[in-house]
Amino acid sequence: MTTQTAGSPPKAVSRPGDRIFAGASIGSGILILASLAGVAGFLLWQAWPALVAPAEQITGGKGLVAYIAPLLFGTVYSAFWALLIATPLAIGIALFITHYAPRKLAQALGYLVDLLAAVPSLIFGLWGVYVLAPAAYPVTAWLADNLGFLPFFSSDASVTGRTMFTVAIVLGVMILPIMTAVNREVFLQTPRLHEEASLALGATRWEMIQMSVLPFGKSGIVSGMMLGLGRALGETMAVAIILSMSGGISLDLVSNSNPGTIAGNIALQFPETSGLGTNVLIASGLVLFAVTLAVNMIARWIVSRRSEFSGAN
Fold this sequence. Notes:
Blueprint: H1 16-52, H2 64-100, H3 103-116, H4 121-146, H5 164-188, H6 192-200, H7 205-216, H8 218-233, H9 237-242, H10 262-269, H11 276-304
Transmembrane segments: 20-44, 64-97, 109-133, 163-182, 232-251, 280-303
Pfam families: BPD_transp_1
Keywords: Cell membrane, Membrane, Phosphate transport, Transmembrane, Transmembrane helix, Transport
Protein backbone atom coordinates (compact mmCIF):
# COMPACT_ATOMS: atom_id res chain seq x y z
CA MET A 1 0.00 0.00 0.00
CA THR A 2 1.44 3.34 -1.11
CA THR A 3 0.95 6.50 0.85
CA GLN A 4 0.89 9.97 -0.60
CA THR A 5 3.52 12.30 0.80
CA ALA A 6 2.35 15.52 2.37
CA GLY A 7 2.19 18.46 0.02
CA SER A 8 2.49 16.41 -3.18
CA PRO A 9 -0.30 17.00 -5.72
CA PRO A 10 -2.68 14.09 -6.31
CA LYS A 11 -2.08 12.09 -9.46
CA ALA A 12 -4.71 12.50 -12.17
CA VAL A 13 -6.68 9.37 -12.91
CA SER A 14 -6.40 8.39 -16.58
CA ARG A 15 -9.80 7.29 -17.87
CA PRO A 16 -10.40 5.52 -21.19
CA GLY A 17 -12.84 8.24 -22.27
CA ASP A 18 -10.19 10.93 -21.73
CA ARG A 19 -7.66 9.04 -23.82
CA ILE A 20 -10.20 8.48 -26.60
CA PHE A 21 -11.22 12.13 -26.61
CA ALA A 22 -7.59 13.32 -26.64
CA GLY A 23 -6.74 10.98 -29.49
CA ALA A 24 -9.79 12.06 -31.50
CA SER A 25 -8.93 15.74 -30.99
CA ILE A 26 -5.32 15.26 -32.06
CA GLY A 27 -6.40 13.17 -35.04
CA SER A 28 -8.93 15.80 -36.12
CA GLY A 29 -6.30 18.53 -35.96
CA ILE A 30 -3.86 16.45 -37.99
CA LEU A 31 -6.60 15.64 -40.51
CA ILE A 32 -7.38 19.33 -41.01
CA LEU A 33 -3.71 20.16 -41.57
CA ALA A 34 -3.31 17.22 -43.94
CA SER A 35 -6.40 18.27 -45.92
CA LEU A 36 -5.12 21.83 -46.17
CA ALA A 37 -1.71 20.63 -47.30
CA GLY A 38 -3.37 18.27 -49.79
CA VAL A 39 -5.42 21.08 -51.34
CA ALA A 40 -2.35 23.33 -51.58
CA GLY A 41 -0.28 20.51 -53.09
CA PHE A 42 -2.98 19.66 -55.63
CA LEU A 43 -3.32 23.28 -56.73
CA LEU A 44 0.45 23.68 -57.04
CA TRP A 45 0.75 20.44 -59.00
CA GLN A 46 -2.02 21.38 -61.43
CA ALA A 47 -0.81 24.98 -61.75
CA TRP A 48 2.84 24.06 -62.38
CA PRO A 49 2.54 23.79 -66.20
CA ALA A 50 1.17 27.34 -66.26
CA LEU A 51 3.88 28.59 -63.91
CA VAL A 52 6.67 27.35 -66.21
CA ALA A 53 4.96 27.96 -69.57
CA PRO A 54 6.25 30.71 -71.92
CA ALA A 55 4.39 34.01 -71.70
CA GLU A 56 3.02 33.78 -75.26
CA GLN A 57 1.25 30.49 -74.47
CA ILE A 58 -0.70 31.96 -71.56
CA THR A 59 -4.19 33.27 -72.23
CA GLY A 60 -3.81 36.84 -73.48
CA GLY A 61 -0.23 36.30 -74.61
CA LYS A 62 1.32 38.52 -71.92
CA GLY A 63 2.25 36.00 -69.26
CA LEU A 64 0.71 34.57 -66.15
CA VAL A 65 1.25 37.65 -63.97
CA ALA A 66 -0.40 39.92 -66.52
CA TYR A 67 -3.35 37.53 -66.69
CA ILE A 68 -3.88 37.12 -62.95
CA ALA A 69 -3.04 40.67 -61.78
CA PRO A 70 -6.30 42.34 -63.02
CA LEU A 71 -8.35 39.47 -61.60
CA LEU A 72 -6.60 39.71 -58.25
CA PHE A 73 -7.12 43.47 -58.24
CA GLY A 74 -10.83 43.06 -58.98
CA THR A 75 -11.17 40.43 -56.24
CA VAL A 76 -9.54 42.60 -53.58
CA TYR A 77 -11.21 45.80 -54.85
CA SER A 78 -14.76 44.43 -54.71
CA ALA A 79 -14.13 42.84 -51.30
CA PHE A 80 -12.75 46.14 -49.97
CA TRP A 81 -15.88 48.09 -50.94
CA ALA A 82 -18.12 45.33 -49.59
CA LEU A 83 -16.26 45.51 -46.29
CA LEU A 84 -16.58 49.29 -46.26
CA ILE A 85 -20.36 48.97 -46.65
CA ALA A 86 -20.93 46.07 -44.26
CA THR A 87 -18.72 47.11 -41.31
CA PRO A 88 -20.77 50.07 -39.97
CA LEU A 89 -24.01 48.18 -40.62
CA ALA A 90 -22.77 45.11 -38.75
CA ILE A 91 -21.59 47.17 -35.77
CA GLY A 92 -24.85 49.16 -35.66
CA ILE A 93 -27.06 46.07 -35.90
CA ALA A 94 -25.04 44.23 -33.25
CA LEU A 95 -25.20 47.20 -30.86
CA PHE A 96 -28.95 47.55 -31.38
CA ILE A 97 -29.55 43.85 -30.74
CA THR A 98 -27.36 43.71 -27.62
CA HIS A 99 -27.97 47.08 -25.95
CA TYR A 100 -31.06 48.83 -27.32
CA ALA A 101 -33.71 46.42 -28.57
CA PRO A 102 -36.16 44.69 -26.20
CA ARG A 103 -35.42 41.02 -25.58
CA LYS A 104 -38.09 39.59 -27.91
CA LEU A 105 -37.27 42.04 -30.70
CA ALA A 106 -33.56 41.32 -30.29
CA GLN A 107 -34.17 37.59 -30.60
CA ALA A 108 -36.26 38.08 -33.75
CA LEU A 109 -33.69 40.41 -35.34
CA GLY A 110 -30.86 38.04 -34.49
CA TYR A 111 -32.74 35.20 -36.12
CA LEU A 112 -33.42 37.23 -39.26
CA VAL A 113 -29.81 38.32 -39.58
CA ASP A 114 -28.59 34.74 -39.16
CA LEU A 115 -31.15 33.65 -41.75
CA LEU A 116 -29.39 35.78 -44.35
CA ALA A 117 -26.42 33.41 -44.14
CA ALA A 118 -28.65 30.56 -45.35
CA VAL A 119 -29.65 32.33 -48.58
CA PRO A 120 -27.72 30.83 -51.55
CA SER A 121 -25.37 33.16 -53.37
CA LEU A 122 -27.26 32.42 -56.59
CA ILE A 123 -30.33 34.10 -55.12
CA PHE A 124 -28.29 37.15 -54.18
CA GLY A 125 -26.92 37.26 -57.72
CA LEU A 126 -30.39 37.15 -59.29
CA TRP A 127 -31.60 39.82 -56.87
CA GLY A 128 -28.62 41.97 -57.78
CA VAL A 129 -29.25 41.64 -61.54
CA TYR A 130 -33.02 42.06 -61.69
CA VAL A 131 -33.73 44.32 -58.69
CA LEU A 132 -30.65 46.14 -57.44
CA ALA A 133 -28.91 46.88 -60.75
CA PRO A 134 -31.86 48.78 -62.33
CA ALA A 135 -32.49 50.60 -59.04
CA ALA A 136 -28.80 51.54 -58.72
CA TYR A 137 -28.59 53.30 -62.10
CA PRO A 138 -30.11 56.63 -60.92
CA VAL A 139 -27.70 56.64 -57.99
CA THR A 140 -24.65 55.85 -60.11
CA ALA A 141 -25.72 58.45 -62.69
CA TRP A 142 -25.97 61.09 -59.97
CA LEU A 143 -22.56 60.09 -58.61
CA ALA A 144 -21.01 60.29 -62.08
CA ASP A 145 -22.55 63.73 -62.71
CA ASN A 146 -21.72 65.29 -59.35
CA LEU A 147 -18.62 63.43 -58.16
CA GLY A 148 -16.96 62.81 -61.49
CA PHE A 149 -13.75 64.45 -60.26
CA LEU A 150 -13.14 61.33 -58.15
CA PRO A 151 -11.55 58.34 -59.90
CA PHE A 152 -14.32 56.09 -58.59
CA PHE A 153 -17.03 57.92 -60.58
CA SER A 154 -15.04 59.46 -63.43
CA SER A 155 -16.83 57.67 -66.31
CA ASP A 156 -20.41 57.63 -67.54
CA ALA A 157 -22.68 55.39 -65.50
CA SER A 158 -23.65 52.07 -67.07
CA VAL A 159 -27.33 51.91 -67.99
CA THR A 160 -27.47 48.21 -67.13
CA GLY A 161 -26.29 48.77 -63.57
CA ARG A 162 -24.11 45.63 -63.74
CA THR A 163 -21.11 47.37 -62.27
CA MET A 164 -18.67 47.07 -59.40
CA PHE A 165 -20.96 49.39 -57.44
CA THR A 166 -23.77 46.80 -57.51
CA VAL A 167 -21.38 43.94 -56.77
CA ALA A 168 -20.03 45.77 -53.71
CA ILE A 169 -23.54 46.24 -52.30
CA VAL A 170 -24.49 42.59 -52.89
CA LEU A 171 -21.26 41.32 -51.34
CA GLY A 172 -21.78 43.68 -48.40
CA VAL A 173 -25.21 42.16 -47.75
CA MET A 174 -23.79 38.65 -48.09
CA ILE A 175 -21.02 39.14 -45.52
CA LEU A 176 -23.28 41.04 -43.12
CA PRO A 177 -24.54 37.95 -41.19
CA ILE A 178 -21.13 36.60 -40.21
CA MET A 179 -19.82 40.03 -39.24
CA THR A 180 -22.94 40.83 -37.21
CA ALA A 181 -22.80 37.46 -35.45
CA VAL A 182 -19.17 37.97 -34.40
CA ASN A 183 -19.80 41.53 -33.22
CA ARG A 184 -22.93 40.50 -31.33
CA GLU A 185 -21.14 37.74 -29.41
CA VAL A 186 -18.22 40.02 -28.57
CA PHE A 187 -20.45 42.83 -27.34
CA LEU A 188 -22.38 40.39 -25.12
CA GLN A 189 -19.10 39.34 -23.49
CA THR A 190 -18.34 42.85 -22.25
CA PRO A 191 -17.83 42.60 -18.47
CA ARG A 192 -21.06 43.57 -16.80
CA LEU A 193 -19.24 45.41 -14.00
CA HIS A 194 -17.60 47.70 -16.56
CA GLU A 195 -20.97 48.66 -18.02
CA GLU A 196 -22.56 49.20 -14.61
CA ALA A 197 -19.59 51.26 -13.42
CA SER A 198 -19.89 53.57 -16.44
CA LEU A 199 -23.62 54.02 -15.87
CA ALA A 200 -23.09 54.58 -12.13
CA LEU A 201 -20.67 57.43 -12.91
CA GLY A 202 -23.43 59.19 -14.85
CA ALA A 203 -22.65 58.08 -18.39
CA THR A 204 -25.46 57.76 -20.89
CA ARG A 205 -26.01 54.48 -22.68
CA TRP A 206 -24.08 55.67 -25.74
CA GLU A 207 -21.23 56.97 -23.58
CA MET A 208 -21.15 53.60 -21.79
CA ILE A 209 -20.88 51.89 -25.17
CA GLN A 210 -18.05 54.19 -26.18
CA MET A 211 -16.12 53.70 -22.93
CA SER A 212 -16.77 50.01 -22.24
CA VAL A 213 -18.30 48.01 -25.09
CA LEU A 214 -16.39 49.26 -28.12
CA PRO A 215 -12.91 49.20 -26.51
CA PHE A 216 -13.54 45.67 -25.21
CA GLY A 217 -14.84 44.47 -28.59
CA LYS A 218 -12.25 46.20 -30.79
CA SER A 219 -10.32 43.06 -31.65
CA GLY A 220 -13.58 41.16 -32.17
CA ILE A 221 -14.76 43.81 -34.62
CA VAL A 222 -11.51 43.53 -36.56
CA SER A 223 -11.68 39.74 -36.58
CA GLY A 224 -15.28 39.90 -37.87
CA MET A 225 -14.10 42.21 -40.63
CA MET A 226 -11.37 39.78 -41.60
CA LEU A 227 -13.78 36.84 -41.67
CA GLY A 228 -16.18 38.85 -43.81
CA LEU A 229 -13.31 39.80 -46.09
CA GLY A 230 -12.41 36.14 -46.52
CA ARG A 231 -16.01 35.38 -47.53
CA ALA A 232 -16.13 38.27 -49.99
CA LEU A 233 -12.82 37.29 -51.60
CA GLY A 234 -14.06 33.80 -52.42
CA GLU A 235 -17.57 34.63 -53.60
CA THR A 236 -18.29 33.18 -57.04
CA MET A 237 -21.81 32.95 -58.40
CA ALA A 238 -23.18 36.32 -57.32
CA VAL A 239 -20.20 38.12 -58.89
CA ALA A 240 -20.30 35.99 -62.04
CA ILE A 241 -24.00 36.73 -62.54
CA ILE A 242 -23.91 40.46 -61.85
CA LEU A 243 -20.59 41.77 -63.05
CA SER A 244 -20.04 42.67 -66.68
CA MET A 245 -16.32 41.89 -66.88
CA SER A 246 -14.20 43.83 -69.33
CA GLY A 247 -10.73 43.03 -68.00
CA GLY A 248 -7.97 45.43 -67.09
CA ILE A 249 -7.48 47.43 -63.91
CA SER A 250 -9.89 50.27 -63.24
CA LEU A 251 -10.92 52.17 -60.11
CA ASP A 252 -14.24 53.19 -61.65
CA LEU A 253 -17.25 51.79 -59.83
CA VAL A 254 -20.09 52.89 -62.10
CA SER A 255 -18.99 52.21 -65.70
CA ASN A 256 -18.73 49.12 -67.89
CA SER A 257 -14.95 49.01 -67.37
CA ASN A 258 -15.08 46.41 -64.63
CA PRO A 259 -12.12 44.25 -63.63
CA GLY A 260 -13.06 40.63 -63.16
CA THR A 261 -12.57 38.53 -60.05
CA ILE A 262 -10.63 35.29 -59.76
CA ALA A 263 -13.56 33.21 -58.53
CA GLY A 264 -15.99 34.66 -61.07
CA ASN A 265 -13.53 34.18 -63.93
CA ILE A 266 -12.97 30.53 -62.99
CA ALA A 267 -16.71 29.88 -62.80
CA LEU A 268 -17.29 31.42 -66.24
CA GLN A 269 -14.24 30.06 -68.10
CA PHE A 270 -13.62 26.62 -66.61
CA PRO A 271 -16.37 24.66 -68.47
CA GLU A 272 -15.02 25.74 -71.89
CA THR A 273 -11.29 25.55 -71.12
CA SER A 274 -8.90 22.68 -71.68
CA GLY A 275 -5.18 21.99 -71.71
CA LEU A 276 -2.92 24.80 -70.59
CA GLY A 277 -5.92 27.12 -70.18
CA THR A 278 -7.16 24.88 -67.36
CA ASN A 279 -3.76 25.06 -65.68
CA VAL A 280 -3.86 28.86 -65.93
CA LEU A 281 -7.24 28.96 -64.19
CA ILE A 282 -5.98 26.64 -61.47
CA ALA A 283 -2.94 28.87 -61.04
CA SER A 284 -5.28 31.82 -60.44
CA GLY A 285 -7.15 29.63 -57.96
CA LEU A 286 -3.85 28.97 -56.18
CA VAL A 287 -3.36 32.73 -55.79
CA LEU A 288 -6.88 33.09 -54.39
CA PHE A 289 -6.23 30.19 -52.01
CA ALA A 290 -3.08 31.88 -50.71
CA VAL A 291 -4.84 35.23 -50.24
CA THR A 292 -7.84 33.79 -48.38
CA LEU A 293 -5.56 31.61 -46.24
CA ALA A 294 -3.52 34.66 -45.26
CA VAL A 295 -6.67 36.64 -44.43
CA ASN A 296 -8.07 33.89 -42.22
CA MET A 297 -4.73 33.38 -40.46
CA ILE A 298 -4.62 37.09 -39.66
CA ALA A 299 -8.20 36.89 -38.38
CA ARG A 300 -7.35 33.98 -36.07
CA TRP A 301 -4.30 35.84 -34.78
CA ILE A 302 -6.44 38.87 -33.96
CA VAL A 303 -9.02 36.69 -32.21
CA SER A 304 -6.32 35.02 -30.11
CA ARG A 305 -5.14 38.43 -28.91
CA ARG A 306 -8.45 38.90 -27.11
CA SER A 307 -7.23 36.47 -24.47
CA GLU A 308 -4.83 39.17 -23.31
CA PHE A 309 -7.79 41.25 -22.14
CA SER A 310 -8.91 40.44 -18.62
CA GLY A 311 -11.88 41.87 -16.79
CA ALA A 312 -14.57 41.02 -14.31
CA ASN A 313 -17.69 39.35 -15.69
